[in-house]
Each structure stands twice: as C-alpha cells, then as structure tokens.
Amino acid sequence: AVLGPPEVSITSCPNCINVTIKLPPSHFRDRGKLLSLIDIYEELDYNITLKSLDGEYKKPRQKTTEEVFSTVIEELYPSRNYCVSVEFSASLNRHSIPSPWKCATADSEAPQGYHKVAVASAVCVSLIIGAVLKCVHTAGFFLQKKALPQTLV
C-alpha cells in the first residue's frame, strides 16, 4: 500500500510559517471500523521539504504518533515566499506520495496590528498633552490675557 498524500495547510507567523499536517486516510478496516495509519503503524516518519528562492531544503526526518499535528519552521526571511511539501513513511512501508506544494509568505517581525496600535497610541498621547496644556492655560500659567503690571515690564 502507498502512503499519502497527507493534507497540508500553512499559515504565516513572524519570520516563520506554521505547517499543519493531517495524515492521509488508510483503506484498512478492522471489524467494520476504518483504521488510521497510527492504528496500523503506531508511529510514522515524515519529511518536510521547504522551497524558496534559494532552492530546496529537506528538514531532518521527524516522527509522529498523531493524526493531526503542527510544526513551525522558524528563522525564515520576512516577506519571502516559501512552499512546503510533506511526505510520510513507516518502518514497514517506505512507499509514499508527497503532498502537493503549499505556499505562504513569512510575515515580518512586526505583528499585523502593530501600525494601528502605534497610530492609536500617538492620538491618545496628543489628546493627553492637549488636555494638560489647556488646563495649564486655563490656570493662567502661560499666554496670559492680562497685561503685566508696569513694574514687571
């Protein structure tokens, strides 16, 4: 039997991509129940191939005992497009079909909402400074409308 292809989805994170992997279904049944690949093999090996402008890079082989799991590929260049393909194998079965390539762009270090927060903070600080200046002006500490007494001039 050939393993795969797994179902793969990827999302961006700052200088990284998060890869979610769902094992392919098996076609074996036990007492009418469809067995998962984990039921059959207990543990599977998987390889992730990462492709970018720099070329292809195979990550070291990993093991899993879960049907659905995630892994994060870190230390990527921000704002660069990366594609991944995942391939499974078992100790007793090395025949597999890799997943189709899935692509995403790694985010830059600043989170998406960062610019909105910066603008909102600047507006709040400006309002606070304006309120303080208005209070100081009302108290008569600067921009006085009354003329100074002749002795102070």
UniProtKB/TrEMBL annotation:
Interferon/interleukin receptor domain ranges (all copies): 2-105
Pfam family, one: Interfer-bind
InterPro entries attached to this UniProt entry: FN3_sf, Ig-like_fold, Interferon/interleukin_rcp_dom, Type-II_Cytokine-TF_Rcpt
TM ranges: none
Record SUPFAM superfamilies: Fibronectin type III
GO CC annotation: plasma membrane
Single GO MF descriptor: interleukin-22 receptor activity
Protein's name in the database: INRA2 protein
Organism of derivation: Malurus elegans
